[in-house]
Amino acid sequence: MNAYDRVLRQLRAAGRLGVTQVQFLEPVCDGGEPILRVAPRVCDLRADGYPITGDGTAANPYVLQGARRTPPTPKVPDPDGACDKCGAPVIWVDVGGERVPCAPLPVLSVAIGLIARNPTTGGGRQIITEDLMSVPGWLQAGAVLHRSHLTTCPMSSAHAAHARDTADRPGQASLL
User: Fold this and answer.
1) Do you find a cis peptide bond into 27, omega within 30 degrees of 0?
2) What are the phi and psi torsion angles at 152 (to 5°)?
3) Could you please report the per-residue DSSP string of 48-93?
4) Residues 174, 158: contact at Cβ < 8 Å?
């Protein structure tokens, strides 16, 4: 049984008492191996439609609030253009003042390195470890997760070469 299933099983068993990260450390509540990253599993469960409240602390444990809901099908935005290296459709997301090409198809699971995009403003933020607890709130507020095209482009070496070439030119911003 994987960590996702173990966390879900424990949430169901705990009921209104909820669970915290501490319960998945030594000694583990379900007798299995320790789970050191419970928060990302809870984020995955939330993204899959499980209504889970709390932030995992002792004062506010994770609590499963009923049956799984079918997550809404995310709307795929119209591409803003195409990659000039491979021709794949991309949308452009402003991340910290730089335009980052992203795959238009939304990603349903949370992971470090994805881009959280605000569809209203077109702005975004690359998810880092410190953001993992905030992502469910961002998703409830309407944010959409995308994978950077620079990580999936079959011509990624051409992007890296372009970034190296333009990094030495004044006034040219690097995509990386």
Assistant:
1) yes
2) -115, -10
3) TT--EES-SSSSS-BEE-SSPPPPPPPPPPPP-EE-TTT--EEEEE
4) no
Q: Say which residues have a Cβ less than 8 Å from residue 134's Cβ, sequence separation at least 6.
A: none
Rg (CA), the chain: 19
pTM: 0.50
Strands (E), the chain: 52-53, 63-64, 81-82, 89-95, 98-102, 115-117, 123-126, 144-146
Contacts of 166 (CB under 8 A, 6+ apart): 172, 173, 174
**Per-residue pLDDT tens over the stretch 100-124:** 899 988 888 888 889 999 888 888 9
Q: What is the pLDDT of residues 43-63, one digit of tens each?
A: 888 888 888 998 888 888 999
